[in-house]
Model the fold of this input.
Amino acid sequence: MVSYKVPVIAGDGIGPEVIAEGKKVIQAAQEVYNFDVEWIDMPFSADHYVRTGETISESSLKELSKYRAIFLGSIGDDKKVKPGVLEKGILLTMRFYYDQYVNLRPVKLMEGVETPLKGKTAADIDFYVVRENTEDFYVGIGGRCKKGASKQELEVIRQMYSVKFGLDVETDSDEIAYQLGVVSKEGAKRIIEYSFDLANSRPKKHLSSVDKANVLTDIYGFWREVFTETAAKYPAVKTDFNYVDAVTMWFVKNPEFFDVVVSPNMFGDIITDLGAMIQGGLGLAPGGNINPKGTSMFEPMGGSAPKYKGLNKVNPIATIWAGAMLLEHLGEKQAAAGIVDAIEQNLKEKKVRTYDLGGSAGTSDVGTDIARIVKQQGRK
Ligand code: IPM
Ligand code: MN
Done:
C-alpha cells in the first residue's frame, strides 16, 4: 500500500473546521482506494504568531520542502494581526519559497448548484484559470517616499516621473508610493507552457490569455510575445488574447467560451473571485499552488472568515475539493475522481447542504455526507 506524509496548516478562522472535513473525506477515500495518508499538523497561524512572533521560519520552510504536497486551510485574522502580515509572511512566502508558479483554479459549476448567471447551466461553466503565482505585482518591489525621504530616494522618483510622464514633480513636497510589476521570460514561459499542456489535454483545446497589453505595454506586451512564441509549439490548440476588463465581461456573458485561461498574477487573483461566484460561491472554489517538480500546496480559495469561526456553518466543499486536487497531484487519480464525484452527488441530491446553498446542515454534516458517498460509490 502506498503511504503519503502530508503536512497540514489548518490556520485561522474557519480553517481548522474545513480542514477537518477535508481530512475526513480523504480518510474515507483511503478505505476504498487503498492508500494511506499520515497528516503532520503544523501550527502556523495568527495565534502562533501572537504567541511566538514567528510567521513561518526558514527552518520550517526547509523542513516542509521535503514533502510533495501541503494541505492548507486559511491564513489571516485581522482582529489579531494587522492585515498583510500573515498573508505575506506565511501564504505568499510559501508560494514564493517553493516556487509554486502555477495557481490552478477550476471554475466548474456542479449540477445542483445555482449560478447567478441567468440561463447558464453546468454545461456552460467548466473551465480552468491558470494564474501565474510568482511574478507580476506580487514580487514585492516597491516603496514609499515621504517628506524627509533621502535625496537618493527622491531622485529615483523624480526620474521615474520625468522619464515616464514628462512630469517635473516636486517630489519633496509630495508623498508618493510605487510598486513594480515584473514579468520574466522564464516566468512567463513556464506558466504559458503549463497552460498549453493543460489545454492540449482537454477536448476543446482552447487557451485564452489575459493581460492589459493596451496600457501596461512593457510587461504585458512581453507576456504576449512569449505566448505567441509558445503557441507555435502547440498547433492543435486554439488561442486568443483578452484584455482583463473585457474578460470579466465575457465570464459573465459567455462563460461557455472558455476552456483554459492563463493570466498574470494580479489579474488572475481578481478574475478567480469572479470565477468563484459564477460557480456558486467561494465555498465551492478550490485552488492548487503547484510546483510540478517541488512542494505544492492545496487550499480553498476563500478567506478565513473569522466571524464564522467555530460555528460549524461554512461550506467545506472547497476544501474537500482542494483535498481531491492534492490526491490527484500525488498520483491517486481514482481517489481524486471519486471525491469529486461524491461532491457532485451531494450537490445533486440537495439534501445535506450549508446555508450558502440554501440549506441548514453544518460544516461537519456535509463532510460526513460526502465521506459516506465516497465509500458507497467506491465499493460499487
Ligand atoms: C488568494 C488571496 C491571496 C492572493 C491573498 C490572501 C494574499 O487573495 O489566494 O487569491 O492575493 O493571492
Ligand atoms: Mn484572491
Q: What stands out?
A: DSSP finds twelve helices and twelve strands in the chain. The first helix runs from residue 15 to 33.
